[in-house]
Amino acid sequence: MTLLRSLSSPAALASPADLTLPDGFTVELAPGTHRSRDGRLMTGGSPLRLIRLTDAAVRRLGDGRFAVTDAPSAALARRLLDAGVAHPRPAPAPASAPAEHTTVVIPVRDRADPLDRLLGALRGDPATAALPVLVVDDGSKDPAALAGVASRHGARLLVHRYNRGPAAARNTGLRHARTAYVAFCDSDVVPEPGWLAPLLAQFADPAVALAAPRVVALPVTAPRLLDRYEEVRSPLDMGPAEGPVVPVSALSYVPSATIVVRRAAVGAGFDPRLRVGEDVDLCMRLHEAGWRLRYVPSARVGHRHRTDLPSWLAQRVGYGTGAAALAVRHPGQVPPLYAAPWSLAACALLLRGRPLPVAAATVLTGATALRLARRMPDADHPARAGTLLSLAALRGTAEQLLRCATRHHWPLALAAACVNRRARQVLIAAAVADGLLDHRRSGSALTPLAHVALRRLDDLAYGWGVWQGAARHRTTAPLRPRLALRVVSRWTGARPQP
């Protein structure tokens, strides 16, 4: 019974009452969105979508940026945003009377010095200097130290007599907030000046419930190996590309190190039963309720990442243990692999490395390219478009398989490598190839050897945590892949297809 209670989801959140974008709200096509010459056909978003527009929509979209002026333009803007092929460009949030709009909630336990640094940054930024701040002491051993810091910066202190976890601490602050928006900041972050306005601007969309900044590494005087690795591979840094936060996409969640929420949307807040993954769970519950979530990397906060090896490894293991509860609560939303059956079959054939299987994989990929080309007769070059999309899907599946072998499923891959020479060769090649690919993409300042070594430690620790969580909850849910039934999702006219 205790296990079932720990995995069950809290009550569903209320859905947004209004999805209509206001007049003047501007959207702009996202970088990477491809349009045909006549503008009627587009591909983009994550997962990849194929979109056809009516003539009226093509005229409205123009050069890729337009403002909402009526009901049809509002509907088009909403659908482009939801498809991930356009980004919002709302007007800046008004700077007048900020204290009437936002409360900052800081959960903290025995971190007086970081709290002092955070409060100093908030009070030193004109845009946040007058904000009400609630500091929630979550069972500190030296509560007087935190009380002194909070008093010195004019913050209100709320106290838990014993430690109840960060989710419960945030919820306590949420209950005491009286403003329309609540900004949650962990005590070890330092917001950069001007961080709040781009996030508040997102709430001009009445369907947005949460906006998150980019979490970057604070500068270090003499960076060591882990410092340099965390600069490009921190699990808190979601990267430089903005976008909607949607499960099973390039941005499937945002960390709660710093987020701003619409208080009316989040209900009671985080699930206090979760000590790990409570932020991912909140993102998924908001998405399931129909709310929109935005990642805004132009807003930035600094964070002191863990860089001593034992605590760094423990953090990664801890993150992995949360995957089981999330996978059971949200079936199919946190798969280790998400790929089409044909691409999995093609990769399996290519792994054989023999002429006949390789030929079969080529035929399978070619057949998929032909099928896609037939679905896009109005593309500028249907055959070329179908070929590129099928090859991109094949490459994406291959990279996911590399990640599975070295991250989620490394115990199985290692067991196979111990008894089979071919499996051993494939695993070694996968470990090296994945690390080198990540080194190139991330722009790491480390040497390739150092980056690959730390990447492997990172994945081993996280994967071990996933298996620990799966064993604890007696479930294989976080280890099961999910099949994508289409290479691209279709969107014809003005209505998205299932």
Describe the model.
With about 500 residues, the protein is of the alpha/beta class. It has three domains: about 25-90, no CATH class; about 100-305, Spore Coat Polysaccharide Biosynthesis Protein SpsA, Chain A; about 340-490, no CATH class. The protein is built from 17 helices and 19 strands. The chain has helices spanning about 1-5, 55-60, 70-85, 110-125, 145-150, 165-175, 195-200, 225-235, 280-290, 310-320, 325-330, 340-350, 355-375, 380-405, 410-420, 420-440, 450-475; strands at about 25-30, 35, 40-45, 50, 65, 85-90, 100-110, 135-140, 155-160, 180-185, 190, 210-215, 245, 260, 290-305, 340, 480-485, 490, 495. The strands form four sheets. Strands 7, 8, 9, 10, 11, 12, 13, 14 and 15 form a nine-stranded mixed β-sheet that branches. A five-stranded mixed β-sheet has the order 2-3-4-18-19, with no helix packed on it. Strands 5-1-6 form a three-stranded antiparallel β-sheet, covered by helices on one side. α10 (about 310-320) packs across α17 (about 450-475), α14 (about 380-405) packs across α16 and α15 (about 410-420) crosses α16 (about 420-440). The chain is globular.
